[in-house]
Amino acid sequence: MSTTLYALAITAITISFFHTASGPDHYLPFIVLSKSKKWSLGKTILWTVVCGLGHVFSSVILGIIGVYLGWQLNKISWLQDVRGNLSSWALFIFGLGYLSYGIWKIYSKKSHKHFDVIGNEVYVHEHSHGKSSHTHHHHKTKVTPFVLFAIFVMGPSEPLIPLLFFSGAHRSIPEVITLISVFTITTVITMVGMVLLGIYGYNLLDTEKIDRYVHAISGSVLSICGAGMLFLGW
Hints:
By secondary structure, the protein is mainly alpha-helical. It has helices spanning 3-21, 28-36, 41-74, 83-107, 145-153, 160-169, 173-199, 207-210, 214-231, and strands spanning 111-118, 121-128, 141-142. Strands 1-2-3 form a 3-stranded antiparallel beta sheet. A hairpin with a 2-residue loop joins β1 (111-118) and β2 (121-128). The chain is elongated. This is Urease accessory protein UreH-like transmembrane domain-containing protein. The chain crosses the membrane at residues 45-71, 86-104, 146-165, 177-201, 213-232. Keywords: Membrane, Transmembrane, Transmembrane helix.
């Protein structure tokens, strides 16, 4: 593997891990459903993997758009000599923009998905940081395995897009395959790991706090990767 591919792979793994581990919505519903519905460990892991793959699928679909755009950029003849620096700058600038968005998210009151446990059931609703998460039942949606799958499919990880755009600009199929593979494996393993930790009563991360910073963390990682390629020869 080249230094560039190592940098891209590590970036994808880092973003995937923090995106997954910092969001209770990636594992809390499975933990509660497993306990309340008395699922076997095998069934719990199966639904976690299925929903994880659905989450990855929607992320990859957006990422393929990035590959296509990068591929088209590669065909522009007068950009042939500068496309390497151009794609690195694009990655760096996107990272800075995403970091700015993440900082805005930290201080904004924009709502996000929140899961509540009521009796033996799990409900999902919109919730803003700093506000009570308790709402009336008619504002909540009861979570079933299929509802959960739909939620994951409709919630892609946007930072994968610039990484695949970069690989598309270099027409590098190995890079595209590697990025999709490590992103998929890291996401699914992290989800399953967090679910198993929760089932057996362990909570290693203060996910409620980390969740607020996940976009800023992703933006920082993308910026570092882009800067390394631009200024350090990664």
